[in-house]
């Protein structure tokens, strides 16, 4: 395509088409010059950053990408220069650099021009040791990626390491992405990309921290291009292509180390980064070619794939059972639930998250084991055999990252479930990887943005939870005249709480699960623990036990009783004062605690004050109610409800204060006085 256009229009005309009025653009200053380390670089960072306590830090990380001409095609050239300071021994690992490279169909990205130095400040002088570029290690990562790695020499505490390298790629669609945040602080990170006007790319930014600079400018562009003759008999021709390019520039500075916090999916969704997808080309000025991924193309490929579409149309191993269920259950919803239970009983999920089947579905059935695609494509096939119009749904799990709905690329997905349309329910999800997972539930790992139906339309559907995480905890206690608490407790889990408990039991044993439950009580003495039978119909799990707590001073006149500690989890999950990322709970949460205490004669209780808290915009509530129905009885009821699956960073301060106040109330002692 490129070659024919250049020949058709000739180089001069091509240049005229590309050329346009250029405004004078002052090029931004380069943030780093290789080899220019000075004594000031060894000084501590400003107190405003967290680099003084970090094991290592990026002083500067600078990358550029440009597109140049080659022989009958264009290439992407990526150059990176980075300078780090190793503050402590724990930071030595950052002196080893790993670089992924892409290869496909006999062509591979090339890693070249590696150079580097390690600098140490000794006796008021800078001593340097040169990196030997030869011992570069290569290892295969997967069928399309290798990783090269190198380690900087003579690294010690206080060293500065500096390196640069080039990656040259024939994959014009594969512009290098850039990551601005790391697990160590970054003083300056900058990325520049120059895109000639005959190419168009979609740019996707991820993350939440703001850019210090985000700009686009028009700059002059020129590149050499070598053209073969049409019959490959005459000598090739060299051409100089000139015109303009769009330069994109991003800068972040004084970036704190990235740290995972509670209720996050995967760092990939939160780390500030930029990504690209080739959208199209126009080599004549009036003949744009759309090169972006189209769902129609992906769908056709899936249909013809032996490990996806053709696997579904092969002989169904559960066809006979499916036909029997079709006769037994005329109501579609009941039939779908029965098919789901059949597949859940027939095969076991091996923990591998995949879009493609690893074997024929018959082999999966015969082995009674398979990856997520093996199991759930078998589910889709069996639902169809039972007369139900099931469709595979592609998705990305929480640990794989959010999908970009504008970029239908198969590598975005790593999981498949079944989708079903019923007369009274337009969208029902089914997943057979977890035994007893009810119809309509997705595993928590799948509650992540949107999924795409694997049919001709490629419709995107929100992956919303159909239930909450529900915990009901009750206790009946008696206070003895010696101040000892004795009684029974019951922990009941339903919704996604039951799904989690059932998985923990299945992955270990009932005994090990009860052992972990026992560890919740540090001061209390649990006895006679028993796990009640799972109720798969209502999706619930329950534990019953006896409990007791001895008094420190049996003859005291005043007792302080930690009643709610017998039930509630009084830990506070939001320790950070500030948060720039959303709080992703996956689903709404609902915790209810009910404690009934019977007092001995001649004891009097100080009834605590009731409390009612609410999050802004209906985000949740907390209720604490204490009452004394009779002189011998005290009841305390609490309920903490978080109505939303996701809370934005702007809601974090309110959410944190809400939890702090609720936890403080949980920890409040009940004061009982001996008369």
Keyword list:
alpha+beta, DUF3857, DUF3857 domain-containing protein, 11 helices, 36 strands, 675 residues, globular, disordered N terminus, eight-stranded mixed sheet, single chain
Description:
- It is a single chain.
- The chain is of the alpha+beta class and 675 residues long.
- It contains 11 helices and 36 strands.
- The strands form 8 sheets. It has an 8-stranded mixed β-sheet. It has an 8-stranded mixed β-sheet with strand order 26-27-25-24-30-34-33-32. It has a 5-stranded antiparallel β-sheet with strand order 21-20-19-22-23.
- Helix 5 (319-328) packs antiparallel against helix 6 (332-346) and helix 9 (496-507) crosses helix 10.
- The longest helix is centred in the N-terminal third of the chain and has 17 residues, at 2-18.
- The protein starts with a helix and ends with a strand.
- 35% of the residues are buried.
- Residues 1-24 have low confidence and may be disordered.
- Pfam families: DUF3857.
- This is DUF3857 domain-containing protein.
- Keywords: Signal.
- Residues 78-207 form the DUF3857 domain.
- Residues 1-26 form the signal peptide.
Overall SS class: alpha+beta
Low-pLDDT regions: 1-24
Q: Separation of termini?
A: 96 Å
Query: What value does the Rg take, in angstroms?
Result: 32 Å
